[in-house]
Amino acid sequence: MSDHVAIVTGGTRGIGAAICHKLKGLGYTVVANYGGNDEKAQAFSKETGVPVAKFDVGDYDAVQDAVARIAEEHGTVDVLVNNAGITRDGTLMKMDREMWEDVIRVNLGGCFNMAKAVFPGMKDKGWGRIVNIGSINGQGGQYGQVNYAAAKSGIHGFTKALAQEGARFGITVNALAPGYIDTDMVAAVPEPVLEKIVAKIPVGRLGQAEEIARGVAFLCGEDSGFVTGSTLSMNGGQHMY
Ligand code: NDP
């Protein structure tokens, strides 16, 4: 059991919701952030008892205000899971500047904004856990996703750099790179494309959000104190280094 306070960005759906369930079950006080889907967030909160906080992780000032309010209400944030993410897919030829900037701002900028807000409190406490959700497509690239692959690849670099800064304060910083997981994000992939993707996954299926949540829980816990700057790949064997 843990008495730590955790924020999970994009915690009201998909992988984030599974992470919230898992951490709450382990005794963490969990707050789930979300971006705009109020109906989904309220339903999630009602079902799980997890409080929700609406703010755009890509908006620096909004993040600082929201995290300060959460800390006031629940206590210093000990655990941050940077999970919020979006896709705006298209080949370079079809990708406009807005599609590029949106994805970099939310997926990568969100990690910076959130880390800025929680790092000082963790440093003062001498303990903290930051887990950044990367992607198999940040590791290997993906056709039609120069924005998403760049942002996710950036998360892996961000993780390794911040891990070096956090280590002497008892703060670990790790990334978890999921493969294809059965969520709304993957449901948006056209069926024929998805069939080809699944055919390339050695275990022969999509991953489940709960499986990712178990990996995140390890990286958030006391037992992972010697793990920092690492990337845990959970992809059914689709991409191996
Ligand atoms: P979903 O699309 O199911 O959920 C995304 C969550 O992020 C929602 O809660 C959404 O809130 C929130 N969100 C989106 N934009 C913002 C924003 N600007 N500010 C705050 N919250 C925001 O995603 P998944 O569960 O599929 O993915 C979760 C993470 O895992 C993402 O980072 C994704 O890139 C990564 N990932 C997913 C894979 C997969 O196969 N599903 C594979 C590899 C990585 P709202 O409901 O309000 O829109």
UniProtKB/TrEMBL annotation:
Pfam families: adh_short_C2 (PF13561). GO terms for cellular component: cytoplasm. Keywords: Oxidoreductase. GO terms for molecular function: acetoacetyl-CoA reductase activity. CDD domains: BKR_SDR_c. The keyword Oxidoreductase applies. InterPro entries: Acetoacetyl-CoA_reductase, KR_dom, NAD(P)-bd_dom_sf, Sc_DH/Rdtase_CS, SDR, SDR_fam. The keyword Lipoprotein does not apply. Belongs to the short-chain dehydrogenases/reductases (SDR) family. This is Acetoacetyl-CoA reductase. It comes from Pacificimonas flava.
